[in-house]
Design brief:
Blueprint (H helix, E strand, L loop, with lengths): L1 E6 L12 E4 L3 E3 L10 H4 L4 E3 L5 H4 L1 H16 L4 E5 L1 H11 L12 E2 L2 E2 L1 E5 L5 E4 L2 E7 L7 E7 L7 E4 L9 H5 L5 E7 L7 H6 L20 E5 L6 H11 L5 E3 L5 E3 L1
Parallel strand pairs: 3-4, 4-5, 5-8, 12-13, 13-14, 14-15
Antiparallel strand pairs: 1-2, 1-16, 2-3, 6-7, 9-10, 10-11, 11-12
């Protein structure tokens, strides 16, 4: 299984793209501006999209993806792209994105009986089999309903796995679940602010170094921890805060183009 980081920033700037991860060319986890780094040929291979929540930086690429591949999927008979999201996220997409005002309703185009997108509600705790990948929908705590995801190749949770927190603040529910993954190789954890903005992190449902649960130290030593959702230019301040807090394991920021091979 190969996972490519298309975007991992908390906002856009030159050289920075918002959250999107590509799994084995066929599955997308979040659809931020990083999706725009793919060629049209690469976009045509995406069959499944998992959305953590409805905020713009995580969904803005989805309507443009639908527009870009509509003709190809219709002509090749590939069928709709399957979009999986919490019920609240599905409702936001229907009401505020694919509403024929902000954007055409690609859940009914090019034909109502053969659309380019289909929206599927999922719930925290669901275990899904999407093509050749297993997915576990994990809890997150944000200002809107949000999920994280664990993903592995094949139909057994015992396979090497990669997991992503989604946008979240302190979330003690997550740690016992991560410990149930027998071979968690990579944990992608959000940290949006430095400790200087700890109050802003709290009210916006994000992390700063001082809010990380002590249970982070209980992850297996073999699990690599990666940081996502950093605002452009925030890494030096966050890095200094992490150093002061004395975490005894490497905590490294993601970067666009990074690849994980499991």
């Amino acid at each position: 299984m190969e996972i490519t980081v298309l975007g991992c920033a908390g906002s856009m700037a030159a050289g920075h793209h918002t959250t999107a991860f590509l799994v084995d060319k066929t599955m997308l986890i979040d659809a931020g501006s990083g999706l725009g780094t793919l060629t049209i040929e690469a976009m045509q291979h995406i069959d499944h999209v998992l959305l953590s929540h409805a905020h713009l930086d995580h969904v803005l690429g989805l309507p443009l993806l639908a527009d870009a591949v509509l003709r190809h999927r219709a002509e090749t008979g590939r069928g709709p792209i399957q979009v999986h999201a919490l019920p609240e996220t599905v409702e936001v997409l229907k009401a505020h994105v694919f509403n024929d005002r902000l954007w055409p309703d690609f859940t009914r185009l090019p034909r109502a009986d053969a659309p380019v997108l289909q929206l599927h509600p999922i719930r925290i705790g669901d275990q899904l089999q999407l093509g050749s990948h297993g997915v576990w929908v994990l809890p997150a705590r944000h200002v809107v309903p949000c999920a994280g995801f664990a993903v592995w190749q094949g139909d057994s949770m015992c396979a090497p796995s990669w997991a992503y927190s989604g946008d979240t603040g302190p979330n003690p529910d997550i740690w016992p679940l991560l410990q149930q993954l027998p071979d968690l190789r990579h944990w992608v954890m959000e940290v949006a602010f430095s400790d200087q903005d700890a109050e802003l992190a709290r009210i916006s449902g994000h992390h700063c170094p001082s809010s990380w649960d002590e249970a982070l130290r209980g992850l297996p030593p073999s699990t690599q921890v990666h940081l996502t959702h950093l605002k452009p230019g925030e890494w030096p301040a966050v890095q200094a805060d992490l150093k002061r807090r004395g975490f005894d394991r490497p905590l490294l920021p993601l970067f666009s183009g990074q690849r994980f091979t499991l």
